[in-house]
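Re: that backbone. Tokens:
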């Protein structure tokens, strides 16, 4: 059996998995940072006021900062604690957006979009962890 600490295939496979996850988060973050108003227009209700669209755009920009920060953390420190913490943040974010959608009809649509994105990123994190553990087992 090959040691996961040498230059063999298991180490490269794990690195590729986390690199793809980091790239996905980074691209999403850059998109949120560069186009928050446009994304707000796309996901807000058709008759949303400009003030509500501005609030959504600010939230999108903040999420962009978070995603870029997480991508940098995953790239620089791909240790289990960091990976699991980032996945946990996605789970908490998804849950909080579902709660917001339940109590606020004004922000329901953007909250559900945010919950779906956060759930997807959490699922990608879980899949990356599972692939890494299978890679270590081989």
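Recovered sequence:
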């Amino acid at each position: 059996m090959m040691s996961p600490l040498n230059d063999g295939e298991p180490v490269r496979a794990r690195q590729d998995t986390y690199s793809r996850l980091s790239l996905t988060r980074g691209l999403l973050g850059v998109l949120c940072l560069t186009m928050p108003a446009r994304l707000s227009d796309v996901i807000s209700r058709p008759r949303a006021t400009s003030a509500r669209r501005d609030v959504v755009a600010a939230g999108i920009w903040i999420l962009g900062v978070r995603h870029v920060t997480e991508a940098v953390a995953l790239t620089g420190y791909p240790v289990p604690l960091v990976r699991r913490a980032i996945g946990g943040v996605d789970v908490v974010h998804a849950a909080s957006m579902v709660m917001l959608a339940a109590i606020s009809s004004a922000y329901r649509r953007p909250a559900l979009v945010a919950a779906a994105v956060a759930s997807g990123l959490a699922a990608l994190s879980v899949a990356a962890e599972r692939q890494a553990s299978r890679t270590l087992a081989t």
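Residues 50 and 138 are 55 Å apart (CA to CA). Confidence is low (pLDDT under 50) at residues 1-9.
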